[in-house]
Structures are given as structure tokens and as C-alpha cells.
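Reading is simple: the C-alpha cell line describes the chain's fold. The lines below illustrate.

. . .
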Amino acid sequence: MRDSGDRPGPPPDSPEGAADPAAHALLASAVDDWAAAIVANDAERIAAFMADEWVIVSESGITDRDTFLAFVTSGDLTHSAMQAITLPRIRVHGDTAVVTARITNTAHYGGDRFDADEWTTDVFVRRDGHWRCVLSHITPAASPEGP
């Protein structure tokens, strides 16, 4: 709850940290480029977006960078589609940024196809002038309620 003297914050869909539009542009581009690298199933390009300590958290637990990249390199994990269905919500807090979006993707793992509709949250840190992801978290999107 706000005190009467508080100024309202930015609208929910406007980027905070607008004082750093270059960071927003770099992060938005990185999200698109990372998705393209994943669909290309190119482990080297995928790794370029990850910090060494990157992990992904999903319903199956925590998977570290080396394990994830090994699945891609072996061909056990491939993606044939990945698309944001919402604009990314990008919030920059100094040298840390949080990017959240709803993503649909088609993956193949162990010969089985998986179609996913997920909310993703990626935490990036800026090191030596480059944004690298340290954490990805995926949550299945709720099915729309219908009649």
C-alpha cells in the first residue's frame, strides 16, 4: 500500500530502469538470439549466453550448464521451435537483470516430442560488459479456462 505522498510507479508493461535503454535493447536481443541458438541445436552458441554457473530449474529439478549442453551436443535434446508469445518483461537492477516471458516450444528428448507452453524467468548478470544468464526457471503455463 502506498502512502499518499508516494508517486505511482511505471505502468506494469513499461520497462523499469529506462535510464539504461541500451541494456534493455541488449537483453531483448539476447533473448531472441538465444532462442535461435536453441532451435539451431548449437551447443556452442547456446553456451555463449550462459554464465559458467548457469542452471535451469524445472518441474524435474535443477540441471546445470554442463549437463544441459551435453544433452544438446549428443543430440538427445533438440528443439524445433521456440517462440515468445508475450513481449519480454525486462527489469534491470544495476548489473543484474530479470527477464520474464511466456514461451512456446517444441523439444525432442530421448526420441519423444514435447510441446510446451511455459513462463520463463531468466536472471542475467553483467560481467566485463556482457550479459550472461546465471539462472533460468520454467513454469508450465496454466491452461486457459473455458466452457
User: Anything to note?
Assistant: The chain is about 25% helix and 45% strand. Residues 1-17 have pLDDT under 50 and may be disordered. The longest strand covers residues 112-127.
